[in-house]
Amino acid sequence: MPAFLAAYDFLLVSMVLAAVLALSLYVPLMAGQLSLASPGFYALGGYIAAITSTKIFPTAGGLYPVSLVLLEMVVAALASAVLGLLVGVPALRLRGIFLALATIAFVEILRVVSLNLDVTGGAIGIFGVPQPFASQIQYMWLGLPLLGLCMLFVARLEQSRTGRALIALREDELAADAMGVDPTRYKVLAFTVSAMIAGVVGALSAHFINTWNSRQGTFDTGVSLMAFVLIGGSRTFVGPVVGGLVLTALPEALRGIADVGGLPAWLAQFLRDGRLIIFGVMIALGTVFFPHGLITPTVLQRLGRRRGSAV
Amino acid sequence: MSVAPARAATGPAAAAGVLGVEALTCRFGGVVAVSEVSFSVARGEVFGLIGPNGAGKTTLFNLVTGLTTPTAGRLRYQDRDITGLPPHRIAALGIARTFQNVRLFGELSALHNVMIARHVRTRSGLVSGVLGLPFARAEERVTRQRAMDLLALVGLADRPGEQARNFSYGDQRRLEIARALALEPQLLLLDEPAAGMNTGEKRGLSDLIRGVRARLDLTILLIEHHVPLVMDLCDRIAVLNFGQLIALGPPAAVQKNPAVIEAYLGDEA
To answer: pLDDT tens, B157-166?
Structure first.
């Protein structure tokens, strides 16, 4: 087991962080809003952590205090919430594909801005973001509780008055409005929560991957997150979590298959590098055959019943 | 009860009404869907709205509930000007509706459909709901209980967990009434509630509407094509034709009105 953890430390932590990011995309989707803004807030959170730890509290050597990482995560959440409100209020007047496009533009704007600012390190970015842990697997001490908290949050949200208002908007915005649910208010709320989650993951990720630049949190990330949610499932919080975990591990599994040998060179190459193509095809097929993803409330009910009868 | 002229809605008489519609006009491009319609609905009244297809009845409902903004004219609800307010604000003031082509939250259970409409009568927010604070929990229990009571009221108490879209057409209409009632409205707008119901269901619907009006102190605005139901239920009827109010009065008088007969049967001259 320790050997396994050591060999796959980077992948395992990445899986957990991806699951949290997938939840960030899922929350606006609860209200029927496809927002691809999460990578933007993820990038923002990362820069906040990278700048704080390298410029404001530079450590001479040794480990960076975990308490400061936690502080950065809080600051990233607050900054993302403020930016989320500023962007969300005008953007959420747009519907459907137009909202998706506007959020893609937002992510692109942030990327270009960070590419050109001095404080973000320009094209090179910020190197040597200090490490709070001696080994990468120890990031689980922060990653797992974060995932747990976010899962608990979204699970409880689904069962609450606020969550019902979001789901009502997804099902029929006009009817929800006529039943007293303020569409703008709840869409902005969902968007802001989503921004905060993404910002927190970004802050932790900057330490985890040791460097931060304008290639973090771009449209490509958005496509991956969309795949996590749409394939995993968009009708229960379990979907994005499973989607994020499994689909992050998938490229490694495919690489394993490619390395077995005996495969034609082009196929091995495709299995190694075709991650986004494979996600794209899965999204396309998934939306046709599993419009609500693989894990739906019905599937969960069936699983629960089987377990109940087995006991 | 006299056949009041359509213009009488303005002035002191209108103040007593729950709903005042004043010279309301709605144009869609070149089409005038509703043209200078005025009437006033008194507290406790069941007010029928009839007219041929395309007469502007549903548009009038959309105007009252804020889904469509009027081109001209005013809407008054309990001495408040509600013209141009967004739908959720109007709903919060106590106006609930059903839809002609049923707009339930199809994938959600019957119980959830009704619980959602308790939104404006409940308070718990994001944090209190997620943390499960005592008051939010208590509120949740009450919400669930009220929703169950309403399902029982419309005769669907035995299927709270079933997806709304699996219900028969008639049951969906009754579920929509339960959802509208969950808002605790003072004014209830029913858009063709009997459509798709069989004779027995229609009779049951009549009793249901009469029952909730008495029990919940409701004022009801009703669009309906089924003439016996309208004649049986309504205190007064307004007749629309091509967006204009052509008659207003008690059912018996409206039935004999030559303009109404002409609108329904066509001008033979």
So the answer is: 999 999 999 9
